[in-house]
Amino acid sequence: MPTADELPDGITGEQVAEWYDRFRFYRHPPSRADLIAWLNQFGTEDVSIAAKLLDQVVIISDRDIQQGYHDALGALPGWHVDEARRKGRWAFVGLGGQAESGPAMLHMFREANNLTSDRNQGLFVTPADLPEMKLTAHDTVVFVDDFAGTGEQFSKRWALYKELIVGEANIYLFLAAATSQAMELLQPLDDITVQAQLVLPASAGIFNDANEMFTDDEKDRVLRHCKKADGRNPKGWGACGLLLVISRKTPNNSIPVLHAQSRKWTPVFPRKMKLVGIPAPKAATCQ
Predict the structure, then answer these.
(1) Closest-CA residue to 66 (of 242, 197, 171, 254)
(2) What is the pLDDT of residue 284?
(3) Regions of the chain short of the pLDDT cut 50
(4) What is the structure's pLDDT at 2?
(5) Could you give all domains of the chain from N- to C-terminal order, each with its CATH number?
């Protein structure tokens, strides 16, 4: 096996440079040495498949997310950045608790829509604040999150959220990305409109029969390495098998060779930040 500084057979410096440039948007971007070390874990027999995985990774940058949030809000009826020109009251809610992705995405949403000043603080609320607002059909609630892999998490919570919104407000869920599977589950929910900037088709799942980018043999080889990385969820959470990387954190719906840390595996897009002297936070689950 090549050393950490030596390119694996069949891998060129130009390929590594292209990956390095494309993945620089990740919160802990892989160095050239990180990329080479990750490739070497596949061994000489599977390194070409590992390279193919990196070529197929879809990465969503902070800029992509903020552009999507900006465009989505700007298209809603009744919205205007100038309070005097808005129709009805507005409430923006980050999904989940402080350890989950929603609150972090809500901050990005504020920046994307020029709402960071103190005078706009009242627009941003928690789910617990909604009953006291006594919203009407003239008002709008926008839930914000980053990604829906299976859609089950929000689907299970929706009855509770809906109960908290006293009245007949217009309700939206903004996502940076979602799978078609999640959208099929979420879009029929009563009284809410779900919008995702990027919808990944079934073929985005590497182990899905609709995926023709990888042969059956290649899929089997990838799965063997995924079992080393995470024996419990070798196809990613919900067996989604994605090659998706979001700038702030790789969804655990993506295949574990990308993000999972174990005694047998070092990821190229770790979900947990590793800082000297600071313990890594417990990861929240994406669903």
Answers:
(1) 197
(2) 45
(3) 1-2, 276-281, 283-286
(4) 47
(5) 13-56+202-259 (no CATH), 62-199 (3.40.50.2020)
